[in-house]
Write a structure and sequence with these properties.
The chain is an alpha/beta fold and about 325 residues long. The chain contains 12 helices and 8 strands. Strands 1-2-4-3-5-6-7-8 form an 8-stranded mixed sheet, with helices on both faces. Helix 2 links the parallel strand 3 and strand 4.
Length: about 325
């Protein structure tokens, strides 16, 4: 399911057919038919024109908005919001063009997604906001905190995009290789491999992300999803945040898996994850970095107990 930061893996690993465990899956006719492990609500955003799907659990004096990564959706947080909902109000959203949210075309810019988050906060009347963002969602959380500092009390960055610098040529390559067509034509084997790359050891509980990604290929609005993914890649490289990290003054929790295979990009910037993580943390004055052993890119799903405890300790 996850088409996260290492775009090369998602476009080069093209094979044919599908391994037997996933034969016979039923297709869905539209994205809204995806089966989530929790009830969802929807809210209309008058300014942006999108309908945003979200799950809500818990209550408390702090509200956490969970923002998924590239190609992902709200169930990415299914191992977190129930536990954290015992302490806080938790809202996991589908970004526009993803999951059960509406599929109107948009720019994919990080500033656009930030405006969606800000409008949702205002429409729902949310208070005392903390943003938790995974991968691309981390870059969105950073952008929101920079553009709307009065709305955000703190940010939780999970394997965030935005700490890695790309040259002009690398940015253009990323734009060129990630198109709606390349997303649409990703084969079944590539989908499975792309998911596995997100983990140090992929838990069986993550299998639904593979089956959902396979089932949605015949949905009537799948083309809109593919367009949103391609636009999001452009949005990340067109609005980098690496040179603005020192403008973040609010409390920031940063979590990386020590075995992250996606950050840094192994094709464009081979190196160590810890170097990228430490650089980003060094630029954010009021930050705490947690490196998690035997863990890949999908920190909150692979090591939910560590993630949940880290968030609770941070918000204390």
């Amino acid at each position: 399911m996850m088409r996260l930061l290492n775009i090369a893996i998602l476009t080069v690993m093209m094979f044919s057919g599908c391994s037997s465990p996933y034969k016979g899956l039923s297709d869905i006719s539209k994205m809204d038919e995806l089966e989530y492990p929790f009830a969802t609500k929807k809210v209309q955003l008058p300014n942006n024109g999108h309908t945003i799907a979200y799950a809500e659990t818990g209550k408390g004096d702090k509200t956490i908005i969970f923002i998924h990564g590239l190609g992902s959706y709200a169930p990415a947080w299914s191992r977190n919001i129930e536990e954290l909902g015992k302490h806080y109000r938790c809202i996991a959203i589908d970004l526009p063009g993803y999951g059960k949210s509406s599929m109107e075309p948009h720019s994919g810019l990080m500033s656009y997604y930030a405006s969606v988050i800000a409008e949702m906060i205002n429409v729902l009347g949310l208070q005392n906001i903390y943003l938790a963002g995974h991968s691309m969602g981390g870059q969105i959380a950073i952008t929101t905190a920079l553009l709307f500092p009065d709305l955000v009390k703190g940010i939780i960055l999970v394997s965030p995009a935005g700490f890695e610098r790309f040259t002009a040529g690398q940015k253009q390559w990323l734009r060129d290789v990630t198109t709606p067509k390349s997303v649409k034509l990703t084969t079944a084997e590539a989908i499975q491999n792309n998911m596995a790359v997100n983990f140090y050891r992929m838990p069986k509980e993550a299998e639904f992300m593979i089956t959902d990604r396979l089932r949605m290929r015949k949905a009537s609005d799948f083309d809109a999803y593919c367009y949103a993914v391609a636009q999001s890649v452009k949005g990340m490289v067109d609005e980098p945040v690496i040179d603005y990290l020192d403008n973040i003054k609010i409390p920031t929790l940063i979590l990386f898996g020590e075995k992250d295979n996606l950050i840094p990009n192994r094709y464009l910037n081979p190196g160590k994850t810890i170097d990228i993580a430490q650089y980003g943390a060094s630029r954010i004055a009021n930050s705490k970095l947690v490196m998690i052993p035997e863990c890949g890119h999908f920190v909150m799903f692979e090591k939910p107990d560590v993630f949940n405890k880290s968030v609770i300790d941070f918000l204390k």
